[in-house]
Amino acid sequence: MSKRLETTFAGVPFKNPVALASGTCGFGRELGEYFDLERLGGLCSKGLTLDPREGNQGVRIWETPSGIMNSVGLENPGVRRFLAEENPRMNELDLVNIVNLGGHSMEEYLEAVELLNRAKLDILELNISCPNVKEGGMNFGVKTRVAREVVRQVRAICRHKLVIKLSPNAEDIVALARACQEEGADGLSLTNTFLAMAIDVDKRRPVFENVYAGLSGPAVKPIALRMVHQVAHGVDIPVMGMGGISSWRDALEFMMAGATVVQVGTGSFMKPDLALDVIDGLEAWLEERGIENINEIRGSV
Questions:
Q1: Nearest alpha carbon to residue 2 among 20, 16, 19, 18
Q2: How confident is the model at residue 2 (pLDDT cuts 50, 70, 90)?
């Protein structure tokens, strides 16, 4: 691989700007059976919480036109088991180790960050789309004021590069992004899944136990692209873009919109090695046009 795809995100070098998105690749074990993970620029772990979670009951995945809906419920082994069983293996791979962390209270976030502080990892991606159980279930990432407080407290103790994963359901995603920057975030990633709904007409009831679920896939790409463009042009910290990327052309759009790195998620369910197609396609496009490095086209739109 040439140096055309090399980039740096918040001081962290990436050999190429393509990572696997949280929640779609586990910890890399399964997809590693299909292709060489070390061809990737980065890998973002399944969303972790302080303690293990079994996830939601009932239907978890539902196919919808040009996408899927999920209500997995952050099923995960918990931070302690992740650090003992998965993180060492992820660190052995020649790629950027991005660890995704969620929480349902401020105390839970902070205790988990303290544990992760002791571990080797490259980037901590903080998922603020989790419901705050002490505030009636409102997601931390909806209100700018609430998100600001989460980032302020986490930043005060976090020893790693801190990237905040933004929800498209935010009341004002640009204002929220600026608040994250002001509180010391090293970067941003967006978007998380879109709040959506499906109804089983035969049973006359919602498909999901929690009624609403997260929509991802090509259906959300134009909206996610718009949000990445708005945020990337509204802040001075780097952005990871995601949301329906299913080809190298999609990835190129996100980078032209201002993303430094892109994450491939739902598309991997249809084609496990999609990320490699994206990497190869980007490199071929740059070479064909005589462009020395991918950063030359970032934010060009």
A1: 16
A2: confident
The one catalytic residue among 25, 130, 158, 180: 130
Q: What is the token pair recorded at 113? A: 């960050």
Instruction: Determine the Cα–Cα distance for residues 232 and 174; give it in Å rounded to an integer.
Output: 9
Give the residue with greater pLDDT, 97 vs 133.
97
Supply 153's token pair.
């407290």
123-127 and 96-101 beta bridge pairing: parallel
Instruction: Tell me the pairing of strands 194-197 and 212-216.
Output: antiparallel
Backbone region of residue 42 per phi and psi (left: phi > 0; alpha: psi in -120 to 50; beta: other values): beta
Q: Has this prediction a pTM greater than 0.90?
A: yes
| pLDDT tens figures, 56-95 | 999 999 999 999 999 999 999 999 999 999 999 999 999 9
Q: Which two tokens stand for residue 44?
A: 């973002």
| Residue 130 is among the residues annotated as catalytic for this protein | yes
139: which strand partners?
A: 131
Neighbours of 206 (CB within 10 A): 16
In angstroms, the CA 229 to CA 246 distance is 18
What pLDDT band is residue 273 in, cutting at 50, 70 and 90? very high
| DSSP notation for 86-145 | THHHHHHSSSEEEEEE--SSHHHHHHHHHHHHTS--SEEEEE--SB-GGGTT-BTTTSHH
